[in-house]
Amino acid sequence: MYIDKEQIQKHVKTHSVRSNEDRSAVTILKSFLSTKDGKINENFSDDDKWPNTDGTFEFVSNPSISRAPEQNFFVQIKGTSINNFTKDGRFKYSLQSLGFPAFIANKSTLDPGILFVVLNPLEKGESRVFWKYMSLEFVYSINYLNGSVTIDFGPENEIKYSDESIDEFCRKLTEIAENHSFLTKLEDYPYSKNNIIEMIKFCNEEITQSIENGYILNDSRDNLSKKLLTKLDDFCCAVLLLNSLNAKDKETTIPIAWETALLDIKTKYLANFYKGIKYRGKIIPEEGQSERLMLKYYDFLWQIKEYLKKDYNIEVLSNLNKFPLEIDELDDKYNKLVAQAIDSVKKSNKKPQSARYFIQKKTTFYVKSKRYYEITLQLASIYASKFNRITVYSTENISTNYSIEIAYEESEINLWGVPIKIKLITNWKVSISPRCLNKLAKILEIPTKITSKHGEYEKLMNFLTSSGINLLQLIDIRDSKFSEIINNIYKDTNTNEFKKVLEKLKKYFSKTRISDGRNVIRYAIINLREDTLGNIYGDDKYGQSHLNYNQVKIDRQCYPFEKNPYISNLIKKKTSESNFFNIIDAAGDNNLDLYKPYFKIKNLIKNTGEIYFDTSSIASNEEIEQFNSLLDDWENREGYKVNIKENQVCIDSYEKTTINILKKLIEFSNNSNESRTEDNKKYLKECLEEIDDVKKQAIKNVFVKSNILLIYGAAGTGKTTLINHIARLSKNETKLFLTKTHTSLQNLQRRLKNIENADFSTIDKCTRKGVNLNYNIIFIDECTTIDNRTMEKFLSQINQDTLLVLAGDIYQIESIDFGNWFFYAKEIIKNKHSNVELLSTWRTNDKKLISLWNEVRDCKPLITEKLVIDGPYSRDISKNILTKEDIDEVILCLNYDGKFGLNNMNAYFQNANKNKAITWGVWNYKIDDPILFCDTKRFYYLYNNLKGKIVNIEKLENYIRFTIDVEIILTKEECEFDEIEFIDYTEKGTLIRFSVYEYNNETDEDAEEKRKKSVVPFHLAYAVSIHKAQGLEYNSVKIIIPKNNSEEITHGIFYTAITRAKKNLKIFWSSETMNDVIKNFSLNIKKRKSLKIIKSELEKQPEYEIYF
Predict the structure, then answer these.
(1) Nearest to 536 by CA among 549, 60, 889, 40
(2) What predicted TM-score, i.e. pTM, was given to this entire model?
């Protein structure tokens, strides 16, 4: 592309005389745009005072929120009586002076320009107004050697004299302002190849010198990062420009270079790098934050180093390996072994396997100035669980949001004398399930039956693989580029079913369009997950569940997200918690600053456990009120409002649910049943079991002067035992046992003995509409896992005379959603008839182990001493991990990936199993492998977290059959219900058999049962996650905490992990990691400040008032 700056500047200097039609056009345009007073504030000129422009207007998209102008627009206003229309109704106008487009092209202003043409301005009532955005694409397409240009106006470029038309024009102005904020503000000065290479050389010298100085002076990583960050802008910019030059172009500009990089997977990192640098601007990050940015950019610099050497034979960043990464010795040894294995395998064109995976996590590591990737893949099936994951390695930066197929070779590395096979990717491609494409088309009301055998499917996947972009990025690029890409994809295909989908997405849901369902659709196409698409379409059996939208079929429950995706979740997803950057990509960041008070409070709640904060630490009163004004009635009812109370602020729902729950529990604690005294004494007298004094007192007092008993206690203190006694004491009364998860429920059910008149359920199931909770006594176990909203809903559904037993340990892992009620209940309901704390553990007789638990539980000062002296319980990470100390032993890990993640640790231990490996897909299974069942929706009785062991494996033509010894007693009828084969009873439980089948049908929507049976419903359990181990116990527990996981080990996670052991406990970590983890344990002062406020709020409430 060549831009003749000289010709452009000549036109800028020209001056065109205004005609009577032009003057009348200004008057007509003022009357058209004044219908939306407050959005468009014009400053048009009736006289030709400024060459080539006719004034400006300020644009305010939403005056009710803020009257501050979002964008200033320069305008030229022309009038004409020449009705030059084509047969298809398009208006052609000849612009006789190129001064205005030249003014924009010359960057005489950084504001965007609009050309208005008023047809028939002198004829009253016959005038029509057309407009054209002077985009860089348009102004650079003009041949400035000519004196004029013909402009084509379609129906979309006409402004009619109506509110609806002006609204549409304002919507388009909003889009122009958004686009203008990045691409059009990039410098568009034309750079030659010589200029660019000189820039690269100069920047390279500065960067390498800074690294060398930092290395010699032993500078801190944060200080060195601060210095480097200031030097990266020009360097990245120069490489970006060099990449966009091709044989026919002598010059390029930054906007074109950025888009060129974005559309190629090999250089997409350059576009992301430059966008990140521009986002940071000139801001110097706070202390300790520069190195966090630099660690991300470090990977980009390695890619630039390799790219320039390979494509241009330019050597740069020769000392990049001297940037301090703080890699420990063990990491370095392992990385070298993996790198050696990867380098020994040649890349091939071997066809990828048919199984699809999502990229769950990607970690970069470096060996001898070469970059490698460790990638965690998640099986892409709606019936797969998070345990259906594998770890693979690659030298290629696989960059896509979508599912992929891979080809791989296996290689062997030897760590600590133990051989282990690793998978090395040799080929890959994007492979979106056709089910997802067809479901998206169904939402858009376009009937399709795409399969992977369609030529258009293959061409689309090839494009997504080579470009690395997602469908959202595709529909957001320039119209001309989009058309070029679509034409290339479909030029040789026999079908074009999905082309209609892509064109509809572009027409109605690109960032320049405002259509019903916009936020939902744009978010969905970023990742194209089958479960998300299914939830969005919903179940419309009765034709009433869809929103009344014109272009899409979307479930009504999507409306909160569509209305406000920043704070509301998409149907059946936690989008507001985990996918915020995707939400910004989909919905934009307009007015995002207005939500900062809400986001800041939510983040502080997560980090501190408090719910009240000083107003001054959050925002001004005006900013908080401004956020509240954004909320509609539904959002206010749901509790998104930020409350201001004196000098404190809180989120309404967090406060209300907490107080409502506590108020209700207090009411239960104030009821008395004196008649139960004798029954309690009788039970204690007749009970043949040994009961300790604390439990005796609790049984003696239970339900006498209170309708509630709160049971607090650490792991193994006998909470379940006390529940069992209370249940047997009340044998003639109807009972309901509740937990949060099915796993916890099965554990509870298995440990309770001789219980009559009882039902068991998860609390979520019981809080659905229409569920009968008319029981005499309701027990809830593991209360810390139950969030406030669920508990509030539960309490609203039960009778006031229901008896409640609530048990849990406030020091273990807390609920995923916000749940503070059980902690506060302990501090507020403290009388002996309502509250009992069990302190003596029965899980172990080891006094030193109990002493360690208590020290950690209360964050006392001798944790390190007890770990070092009493056990010792700590070991360096070494091959001792692999030495089995007990048959009933487990390895606990925090994550799935990494050399000491679940995937690798299970592989290490399985390798020691000398039985023959049977391969199914990418997984290996052996007889005697310990397993845990997953929640795959296939079985009812083989519940999530059920222990088992593989007894036999038979691999047949299109299925694999497992014989499993499960640690549960199953009847033949229960096996028949789950469609599994009952074989016999064993010492530990039941011997069963079932099969897993191959299944690849991509279009059969009625094959759900077959799809469930195609996923292996368990995972290896030599090692399990700490979270999954909650509620389980083992004779021997080994916990692995590598350095890279130390920041994620909270007090609750650590305490949960160490209390799984009955006899032996070993924690494998370095001395530095142990110190860092323990130092991060804060004393249990969380929630204390809020506790005082909550108590004062409860004291204000009249005793008779009920909050449900």
Answers:
(1) 549
(2) 0.76
